[in-house]
Amino acid sequence: MRLHLGSDEMLVAYLDNELSETQRKVLESRLAKDNALAQRLALLERSNLPFKSAFEPLLELAPDEHLQQQFSAEFRKNHNVSRRNLIAAAVSFLALGVIGDRVFLHFSQPEENWRELVAQYMALYTPETLAETPTPQALDAQLKVTETQLGVTLAAASLALPNATLKNARVLAYEDRRIAQITWLESTGPLALCITRQTGNAIDAQSEQRLDMNIVYWASQSHQFMVIGHETPAKMSEIAERLQHGIGT
């Protein structure tokens, strides 16, 4: 099985005992030295997150050509694709950008707990997930689609952050609500601004922590917002304040 060292596919193959003895030893040596990779492995191994139901819709949407590219010819002969294979393939599709501007989430979480929903989703992200940078024209097109579906004003210039690269904008669908997700990659890892519609009271910025990530969230009378990433709480507050001034609703 041809797999890149440290990739999600290799990690799930390790968990499913599908690596050769040589591959296993090489990966275990890397895991002993790379704490971030070890944490990634632990996340994929956890059974309390509903990965399969979350990512099966992604696989149904992904073009078959891209599906075939994810696995070697030998692996494709085995039709008993495991739960973890589903995880790896779905995460890979996100990294390749093959789904387009709509990704579907299906977690059995209460509607009011949307920040937990987003945190579970973002916990799957690694720098490799956001390795590809779209052209300015492609990014503008993604932002325009997001604007239309969420009723907000987004411009690449107003979303620029120091020491962070703007990577993409997409719309996640959770039951009957849409969640806009705008992502950056910075030195500490993936960072995201998420937006969903609401009808309610405005809320001043507040902070919390979920799944070892720091979150700042606030609301206007028409939308809820959250910024989630791996920066310190103080830095996340600075980022949130900057983005508040750059988004029109």
What name does CATH use for the topology of the largest domain? Phosphorylase Kinase, domain 1
CATH class of the largest domain: Alpha Beta
**How many strand segments?**
7
Could you give a short account of the major beta sheet?
A: 7 strands, mixed
Beta-strand level of the residues, as a percent range?
A: 15-25%
The SSE order reads HHHHHHHEHHEEEEEEH
State the helix count.
10
Per the principal axes of the C-alpha atoms, what is the gross shape?
A: elongated
How many angstroms separate the termini? 49 Å
Number of domain modules: 2
Range of helix content? 40-55%
- Strand order, sheet with most strands: 1-2-3-4-7-6-5
Unreliable residue stretches: 47-55, 61-68, 70-81, 92-104, 106-112
Query: What do the pLDDT scores average to?
Result: 76
CATH architecture of the largest domain: 2-Layer Sandwich
* Computed structural class: alpha+beta
CATH superfamily of the largest domain, please? MucB/RseB, C-terminal domain
List keywords for this structure.
seven-stranded mixed β-sheet; Phosphorylase Kinase, domain 1; alpha+beta; Anti-sigma factor; 2 domains; 249 residues; 10 helices
Structure characterization notes:
This is Anti-sigma factor. The protein is of the alpha+beta class. The chain folds into two domains: 8-99, no CATH class; 103-246, 2-Layer Sandwich (Phosphorylase Kinase, domain 1), CATH 3.30.200.100. It is built from ten helices and seven strands. It has helices at residues 8-15, 21-33, 35-45, 51-61, 64-69, 73-76, 83-96, 114-122, 136-150, 233-246, and strands spanning 102-105, 164-174, 177-186, 189-197, 203-210, 213-219, 223-229. It has a seven-stranded mixed sheet with strand order 1-2-3-4-7-6-5, sandwiched between helices. A hairpin with a 2-residue loop joins β3 (177-186) and β4 (189-197). α1 crosses α3 and α1 (8-15) runs antiparallel to α7 (83-96). The N and C termini lie far apart (49 Å). Residues 47-55, 61-68, 70-81, 92-104 and 106-112 have low confidence and may be disordered.
